[in-house]
Amino acid sequence: MSVPTFFKKTYSSLAQRRYKLFSPRGQSFIELALVLPVLLLLLLGVVEVAIFIGRYLDVLDLTREAARFASGSDPFPDGDPSPPGKTCDPGFYHFYYSTACIFSPPAGSATCRLNDPFCNGLNPFILLNPETDDVVISVYTVAGHAVTDQWPAGGGYWALSDHDEDTAHNGNWQRNCQGDVVRTAPNFTADFVTAGVDNPASPSSKGYVAVEMYYCYRQVLNLPIFTQFVPNPIQIHAYTIMSNPAAQPSPTPRLP
Asked: DSSP E strands: which ranges in 83-205?
């Protein structure tokens, strides 16, 4: 018994539709639609991480430049930790403030305000927020492979947030970017320098200068799926320590 032509055509049409619906090509589109958002998030995450690493390297380079400047300078003529009329202009010199000036924008930069005293540095990429960011500078005198003095005297460290124009936010280095106190001492302490920096094979008497920067990095893409797991902003902490011959032990007592 032969099948009528009408049923043959109907069956053929249904088979073709079924093939189109369940063909490998259609399945590929469905898989792409499911995987594409995940791939996009991964790509954006890689971009955010790359920007973060770039900012960290910028901060690290700035601490190196500041420590290099301080290593060839004398920290002891400066009795006043916050002298009047402080500025980053070449005509003014104060060991701690002038070292911190390395972190200021270059002269003529768009980020410098009119008559801004904190301007004339080497930092064209990062704008310091006086409410959250900070620069900490410490000088150490080592005798007999042990730290005998830490400068400036009385505290052992100098923080930019304590000597800038913003008097409402001091001690920024002690807090994270959310305002919580997370540390009571800078990364470099007398014990840390004695145990982790000083080399017993080196001369027993020497001087060091340490420069630290605490910078709150805000995510550029600000993806909600990442901010649920990673604080935004997140703190970048970089530091550099170098020798400072002027801080070596002296037979003449130094004034505090």
From this structure: 134-143, 146-151, 158-159
